[in-house]
Amino acid sequence: MRNRTILRGLVALALTGGVALALPTPATSAPIAAAPQAALLATPDISLTNTKAHLAQFQALASANGNTRRSTTAGYTASVNYVYDKLVAAGFSVVKQPCTSGCTSGAGPNVIADWPGGDANNVYMFGAHLDSVSAGPGINDNASGSSTVLELALTLAATNPAMLNHARFAWWTDEEQGLLGSKFYANSLPTAERTKIKAYFNFDMVASTNGGYFINRITSAAGQTLKAYYDTNFPGLAPEENVEGAGRSDDASFNSIGVQTSGVAAGASANKTSAQVTKWGGTTGDYDPCYHASCDTNPSNINDTVLNRAGDAAAHALWTLAVGTPAGNDFSIAASPSAGSVNPGSSVSSTISTALTNGSAQTITLSASGLPSGATASFAPGSVSSGGSSTLTIATTGATTPGTYPVTITGTGTAATHTTAYTLTVNGPPGCSGTNSTDVTISDNTTVDSPITISGCSGNAGAGSTVAVNIVHTYIGDLKVDLVAPDGSVYTLHNHTGGSADNIVQTYTVNLSSEVANGTWILRVNDNAGGDVGYINTWTLTLNSVVPPGCSGTNGTDVTIPDNTTVNSPITISGCTGNASATSTVAVNIVHTYIGDLIVTLVAPDGSLYVLHNRAGGSADNIVQTYTVNLSTEVRNGTWNLRVQDAATTDTGYINSWTLTL
């Protein structure tokens, strides 16, 4: 929750004539259309264990990034990616929304997630700010709210109930700087979209160690929905109006555009009264003694009881207002299994089952979207009656690009339409290495991913695994570059070093021996500043690099390539027994303005020549490529040379670096 001094400063400025400030008027509390009582489905428990696991992850992300998750930091970016990845995997439609005006320079994006289904003209939103202050990791303020909303969303996805109304979830940037991320979102909404949002529920500091039970705008229709949970389950608890938090969190941004709001809080820096101690327990000290301080850490600054009830109150509101079986004929749809992997050129199957949930059966036509190029989906049969099932077969071609793809299965009935998610993984070529040379644009203040899928590689990766990176960018000090393993583990390769230097062209050696080799690996690049942009040019991942000591080497010394000349760059290998491998690699980085001029050759210690590039590529710039060469007849030890001949005039360049792995 933002500090009250920001609001006080604005009021003071208005009173002294500095600016005409219109303070928000509370939105009119119009009735909220809940699901018909006969159609309400049982509200699930929001797992405290899972919510606390999210808290532990946010703490770990802060600890790894300067002990803060402020909106402009790498800790915030890591938090965004954690939430984003969880939601995408669960089947949400997720957007990282850049705050393009009004936010702090360098602030990361909002995260907006929509669950499919429900009446799109009746939207219920649940949100929390994702950022912290600079002073600490922000575990109660506000990883507690962020974790609660995240687990609420994941529970909705896991139970996959019929939706009467539409559910949307949000995690806000720059709240601590003045509610800036939510203001940007709310103020950017067209009038028609604003009117669709029937209520916004905010969760900010919901686990204060000396906490109370507060509801924002408790007398509003939205507030009464939350209060009903506490009154029913904890008679005598008597939650109170959140006076301390009024206008200080993201619900204010929605209230100012006329959207009904409410939410849950447990208190910040105000003191608990003796009357509150009598009914809630605790002491008469601050609700959160670590408010905006470095001691706001996990698990010491979390009240499990208050946190658990906040999550269940949120679920009560969501299930009351958005979940339910519409009147008339309806059905549900599910995929089993909900994920599968396939080698290019092969197929994979899943059973798509439907169930009658209300009224009479209807004919349901099945379709699939989100497939990669070269993949097709078929259903046998193509349509079913409610309660029937069909076999989904996804066929690929040899040209289907390896990767992981979220596929949406849609059942279109005569009276209702529903979707379910299926995750398709297209395996990479057999082996323990892969290259992705598809350019990925890196815009200012964004995070982008480039995947490589490894399959057919036994066991774990090697302790000497390598990541050969080629990123074109005009200010590499803006960048953080991570390798993300299939299980989500993050290995940082580059962390905002290098200042104004151009481009990252480097091979990193990473100990990945604890990681299973097969799966989708991601090169993740975060640009957290303005002014300079670029793109991921190519990258290569080699996981079977348990290389004997001395059996690889790199020469990073620039060697100028003038017109019509031949130059050499040597690497000397020693202390390595036997012959080289049949799958030895030569990672080459040559800067040149016309690669059709060049012949590039690897020269073995005995003088044998292995041509890597022979005047191909025409007028294209630069050779950044890893070549696999059968060197099994060559003794490893000795001096190897990368020989480059420029066979024409006008265009020149230099050998930037090269790496030999034998």
What does it look like?
The protein has 662 residues and is of the alpha+beta class. It has an eight-stranded mixed β-sheet, sandwiched between helices. A five-stranded mixed β-sheet has the order 10-17-16-12-14. Helix 2 packs across helix 4 and helix 4 (139-159) crosses helix 10 (304-321).
Task: Describe the SSE topology.
Elements lengths: L3 H12 L32 H16 L10 H17 L2 E5 L12 E6 L3 E11 L9 H21 L5 E8 L7 H9 L2 H6 E7 L10 E2 L5 H13 L6 E2 L9 H5 L5 E5 L8 H7 L23 H18 L8 E7 L2 E4 L4 E12 L4 E7 L6 E5 L2 E3 L3 E7 L7 E11 L3 E10 L6 E4 L3 E3 L3 E9 L10 E9 L5 E6 L5 E6 L8 E7 L8 E9 L6 E9 L9 E4 L3 E3 L4 E8 L10 E9 L5 E6 L5 E6 L8 E7 L8 E9 L6 E9 L1
Parallel strand pairs: 3-4, 3-5, 5-8, 6-7, 10-17
Antiparallel strand pairs: 1-2, 2-4, 6-8, 9-11, 11-15, 12-14, 12-16, 13-15, 16-17, 18-26, 19-26, 20-25, 21-24, 21-26, 22-23, 22-25, 27-35, 28-35, 29-34, 30-33, 30-35, 31-32, 31-34
The largest sheet, given as strand count, sense and whether it forms a barrel, is: 8 strands, mixed
Number of strands: 35
Strand content: 35-45%
Helix content class: 10-25%
Second-tier CATH architecture of the largest domain? 3-Layer(aba) Sandwich
GO molecular function: aminopeptidase activity; metal ion binding; metalloexopeptidase activity; serine-type endopeptidase activity
Family: Belongs to the peptidase M28 family. M28A subfamily.
InterPro entries: Galactose-bd-like_sf, M28_fam, P_dom, Peptidase_M28
EC number: 3.4.11.24
